[in-house]
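pasting input
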Amino acid sequence: MLRWLPLAILLLLAACGKNEHAPFDDPLHAHGIRLPPVEPGLPPLAEASKPQVFPVPPPPFSPGIYPCSRCHVGGAPTADTRPAMPHKKHLDRDLLCEDCHGQDPKVPAAKVCFDCHEDLAKEPEAVRAYFAAVKQPDGTYEFPRRFRTKDVKPNHPGHGKAGVACAACHGEATDAPFEKPKAVAWMAQCVACHTDRKQAVTCETCHEEIREPMHRSVVLHHGEGRHCFDCHNEADRDDLRLASGEKVSFDQSYRLCGQCHGEKYRDWKEGLHGKRTGMWDGEKTYLLCVHCHRNPHAPHFPPMAPEPPPARPEDIR
Amino acid sequence: MTEPLPRAPSPSRRDFFKKVGAGAAVAATAGCQQALEEFMKKSLREMSRPEVKALLERLEKEYGEKFGREVSVHATPPREGVLFGYGLDLSRCNGNRKCVTACVKENNQSRPNPDGDHNNPIQWIRVLEMEKDKGISFEHADPYYNPKEVPEEGKFYVPVQCQQCENPPCVKVCPVGATWAERDGIVVIDYNWCIGCRCCMSACPYGARHFNWSDPYLPADELNPNTHVLGNRPRPRGVVEKCTFCIQRTRAGRYPACLEACPTGARKFGNLLDPKSEIRRLLEEKRVFVLKEELNTKPKFFYFYG
Amino acid sequence: MRLDRAFLRFTTGSARIVLSGSGYYYAWVGLLLLLVSLGVVAYTRQIENGLIVTALRDEVSWGFYIGNFTFLVGVAAAAVVLVIPAYIYHWKPIKEIVILGELLAVAVLAMCMLFVLVDVGRPDRLTHILPIVGSLNVPHSLLAWDVLVLNIYFLLNLGVVTYLLVSLFRGRTPNPYIFTPLVFFSIPMAVTIHSVTAFVYNGLPGRPFWNASLLAPKFLASAFCSGPAIMLILLQILRKTARLDIKMEAIWKIAELMAYAMFLNLFFLVAEVFKEVYSDTHHLQHMKYLYLGLDGKTALVGWAWTSVAASIAAFFLFLIPATRRNLVTLNLGCVLIFLGVYIEKSIGLVVPGFTPSVLGEIYQYDPTMNEFLVGLGIFGVGALLFTMMSRVAINVANGNFRLDAEAPRADVDVPA
């Protein structure tokens, strides 16, 4: 053994120069690290790491199951061909809406008409024609109802007290038949007015009960004072919208998220936020925001059950 | 895929011993020959390419017989211009331990076996639960947390695994040179050369090295048959093992198993020498820190708050 | 007569001496053989099942085995260092002290190597640690250096003591130009083996309990307490049984030197405790665990304070001349020192270094019966080796066993 001692000493001397276990010529480390130069400007997402599989199939929550437009068709103009009641003519004779419709407005009973139009036979031809058109076979009169809504029961007295003119919602009175607006457009008007007047604009404000199961679970926990149409496209529910009004499809929802979460968006594009799978140096799959934040209405990552804890040393036997 | 690890040619004394061994083998029985081979065998680092190839074939045969399944053992060498780095976003990690489970599965660790002779489960990743008001303090860490749901109020989670140090204290203490850092930065162990003295376990400041106190328990149907000779191939009793950044996956270009298993996207991985890689963008954009920086181990495992 | 024939006669004669003796001798050897066989049975169980039969786990990966190894390296080192006072103070039976010291070193080193052997997970691969057949990782690995210096030290002592004994056996005066330099070389080597053993622990930055530069000096100081304590007891026994002419003054002198060593040891302890307590960093955890317990886990507290109390008591026993010179208190002091240093260097050094673990976990290591039996077996081997070797050595030194004499008369019993 002794004769190897000089060898050992030689080995020691030989090895003093270099640590064979640290074989990196260019030691790379966060502390005192020398990094190769970074090219100025960030490459666009498509080039950041290529090739990429994109987008991945939408998560179950996504509206890919069936289009929103299936329900959000909007109210079609009435097919009622009966002649119109000339509202403007009535108003021109210093009548008010409530004189006929009452404080809690409804379609007036025919006897309200006959308070003025006492004898139909003495009325002009147009008036007689109108009443003839709405007369039912049993002798009663049924006036066409143009503003029927499915689940919205407007609080008329409230609106009245707030000084909202009837015309604000029902439009200026004309003698032509009322053109009932498409539901979505009409609702946009409600939302705009509520927003202007700093009134509540949650879904529940107007839509009382009839909300489909899909929406029943929607509880918005996503920032302060957000509203559906901050993200959903009012006019075309199959799409989303950016703040600029630009339409974006659901598979580009990250652009929408990125409007507010700019830093996260940038990190996500570079692979610093979110998850990618596949090859670290090649084809990879990107997950979109909603793949992990599965509920965009309440995007906070939900708590989850942990995997079992490790064995304690005492239990290893 | 079965390219051996490039190493310096072995000294000629080996040949001498081999000749002696060959001569003896003629006379000796097969058992004797095997014993002699065992005695004369070299550490993986000293093997020539044909020797590595022979070793891989021997291992594949051995595992095939042991598990009754086809097992492939590769020796994929490090790539030029690649130095692996890992990032972990402490703001994202919620302590769900999915990484641990995926790691055990991918890397053929010993499974729990409470009804067997010995119960010696091994996990390469340890997720520590820490208290937000105490910060990163190992004194107040709890790896055994087990609530119904994570994350818990007031807690945060720090997964710790091999930090693949650039200045690894475990490597230099090994008396037989059975562990070393590869050119791509992965610290590996030659399971056929380790004598089980556990010096490296004393030296590791991160508790990343684990010992096979008994025969590892690995049911054949849970075996991952795609293995690397320095990584997830089944280990014998009495040797040390540790995380290798999933060497069998990452050298083939894939992400590590723990990263793909993480449901919160807290884990980042890539080539530190590629300015466009995720890990480099991470170092560029985020302020990162390493565990126990004062020990100058220079980990390539970076923690950050994203 | 040619050397090889003389050596053959020496070997056969030694075997005869070792195999013959009084009933007490046989009883003693029988007891040791029983311990050894218990150890063999326990080790066989460990080989069959793996180190899982020990209480060692990932959190505390070294324990009883390596602790004993560390303690015994100190004993081996200190046994030879006794040669220095023997020379300085011109003790008469220097020859015997040198021989006994080196024999003790040889026996204890054999135990050290056995403790390393039983600690490794793959004893079948120990050839890997050999310099040429394997791949000894010098200069990086301190354990590799430790293997190297321990083997050198072992062979050095074995060589010197064999040379001395064979020379005496052949009726020749040992050539001082051969053995004196070797004996003097073995003194720095003794310091080296214990320092390198300390460096094995010392060089681990992740373990602050060991990563203090005072560790190697403290190892030496405590070794100079425990090693001589064993030698003192042995010398007294040999004084009586082997009629070795060892003056009481020599024994008192050793005791006095031990008092100084113990003072240094205690001073180093105070220095370490002060540094940790006053700076109050997280490094203090390990010392807290040792002396106070952590989180209600107090497995080591009793041991730690026993060690401190025994060391302090022994220090005063050896410091005060009256108690130093009283054989009862002297031997009590030796036992106390042995106890104090044994606890401090084995369980009190290794376990708190790992507790809490690097990730803050507290696993209370408590050696299993299997570990204990393996250790007992190794102590049996050491005692057996020393008994037999010293039996031969005393006979040679007394002139009872010589080449030119008739058949050796084994009339000197050497109970240990």
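fyi Chain B is about 25% helix and 15% strand.
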